[in-house]
Every structure is written in C-alpha cells, then in structure tokens.
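Below is one protein, fold included:
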Amino acid sequence: MDARMKRMLGAVVASVLLAIVALASGIVPIGTPDNSPGAGPVSAEASNNFDQLVVVLFENHDITDIYGPATYMTQLANTYGISHHWQSTTNPSQPNYISLIGGSTFGVSGDGNHPNLNHPTIVDLIENGGKTWKAIAESAGGSGCGLSPPRGEDHFPFLSYTTITGNSGRCANLISGDSNTVIAQFNAGVNFIWFTPTDNHNMHDNSVSSGDAWIAGWVPQLLTAMTGKKAALMITFDEGYASPPLVYTSFSGPATVLAHSSSAAYTHYSFIKLLEDVWGGGSLGQGDVNAASPIEFFLAGGPDFGIAANPTTVSFGSRLLRERRPDRGLRAGGCDDDLCAREHQRLSDVDVHAQRDERRILHRDDHGDQRKFGPHRHGRGHRHIPRFLSVGESRERVVCGRAVGLVHD
C-alpha cells in the first residue's frame, strides 16, 4: 500500500472514531421542534435514571397528616421510596406551584394571580432533553392555553408563564383529563406527565382518607402499565404548615429503589434539579442551582444501548460486560444496588417474588473484567440481603439497572 493510500485510510478511520466519540459523549444535538424556544443539545451529564415520569400534586397537608394516617400512600412510600424532609416553598398554594416549575416564586404571593411570567420553566428543560410532555388539569374547561382549570392558575402553573402560553406547540400540551388520561398518555409514550387533580380529589376539599382512597383506585393500574419500563411516579403536596413545612413526597415505580427512606434535606426546587440531572436539559438558574438532587431514590441510569437479546459479550469503547452463567452463585450478604460507579458497569440479578410482588436487585460480588479499575465503592441505597436465590426462582439479568434477559435456575 503506497503512502497516499495509507493517509486516505487513516483519515477515514479517524473520522469514524471522532463520530463514535461524539455520540458517546452526548455532544450531538437532538433535533427539536422549531417552535420550541431554548431547545438545545442534551447534556453529557444526563444520568438517564428514568425515561418516563408522572407527577401528581396534592394539597395543604404536612407529612405527618399523610405518612401513617393515609393507608395506601404510606404503603406506597414504604414499598418504594419516601422523603422525610421535603420542604415546600411558602404559603399559600399558587407561589408553591410557580416555584415548582420555575425555580422561584418571582415575587408572586397569595392566590388568584395571573402573573404572565417571562421565565424559562421545566418545559424548557424537558424539551432541551429531547423529551415529550403533557400537563393535565382534571375537569378543566377549554383547551390549550385557553384551558380553564377549576382553580384557575392557582394549582396549574403552566398558564402563568408566557414562555409556555406564547408558544402554540406548548399550548397544545395543556389538556383536560382525569386519571384515565394520565395512564393513556403514559401508554402513548409521553416522557413527562403532570397531573393536577380537582379539589375534590387532592385533599383540599376532601378528607385525607377520601384522597387516599381516590389515588388507591388508579395508581395500581399506572404501576402495572410501568412494568418493564424505566418509569417512575412522584407524589407530593404543594404546601405544609409546620416549621419547617415538610410535605409527603414519595417516588414509586420500576425505576425507583425499593424500601428506601431518606432524611436528606430537599425542597420543591429539588424536583427541578432531578429533571436537570436525569435528562440533562440545562439549568433554570434559579433555586434549582443549589438544590439537592433526589437522585438517591432511583436505580442507576446510563445510556440505553437497546439490548433486546441475551448477549454473551457487550462492548462499548473500552468498557466490557460479560454475561455470567445462570448457575454461578451469589455470596451471602449480597447487596441491593441502586448506583453504578462511573468506572465500570455492574451485573446483578433481580430476585422476583411473584407471591409478594417484590423485586430485589442482588449485587454480584465480582466485577469480571472491570476489577482492574480498582476497588469498588458502594453508593447510597445499598441494603444487605442475607440469603441466596433458591432453586426455581425466576431471575432477571440486569446490567446497571437495565434488564437484558431472563434466566432461570
């Protein structure tokens, strides 16, 4: 091969390598609609812990009113995850809702306001991350930015920002509906769904037991729809009244850590920080900047390589994952793992208890070819499980929280 041919071949190889590096690092912009202002590239730091998130807002209760007294919501929190120190922003309702999607109250106080705020919101973050969204107001009249929720803008902050109402494409995502609409939108693949219930359901005008029974009547169907998906449900309250004003906030669904209880300090701005961390859509530059991220409630994310089979070897760049044999044992005292170190990928088994509807991730002690990266450090959320998988139990092969195939003893 002459020198000229060698140079040409080298240039081609270099171009291909550069393209691969660009894709791997997340610096290639994702296309977004022309009418979505602020759209841009996905951050390379996106952790991708979930693909879909449903958020439901309740009203006017401290955490002590709900955690314990509300039977189903307590069960949901204990089964999945509960924050014992999630603080609302202020009183009364409307400035809390404004802060939840904008990162600040922007001087709004009291209810019944129509502030026309010209600030970016979580909508910008979601669209910048290449995700889709819908905001649903239960029993609202009208449609789009002419939507008329029963409480006006008090509990539906999307109508308070001109960065939303001044954009026809975004207005189309504001819809009236009920819990069935939430599940239908989820099944349609919408990435982010906000749901504002009526005051007859959200514990504003009805009792805690009534509101608890209402959500118990449809959330199990939503969780069933989430099966096999990287999805989560967040339930929180707009405002508390104690000092500090702590409100019930739970995270549930297959993308969340099981039986996880945290006393770390979070605020409503932490909700925005979570979206920024998981989907990498940038920052609002408000209270979200210094807010703690509740990422501890979620299983590890990482890029989705679309693994649909049961591969013997999966490679990407310098990282290598090898499938373990189904009959290879776990050490007693294995770990339930919710985080993946940046240095290597992990292989675990999910212990599925059909009778108890329970899933545990059992972390393997060895890391195969990745041991050369040094000692492994466990992150938050690990719990020891002093048992082995018994013969006949169904197990699901998981790589960094992503199922790649079923195995059976």
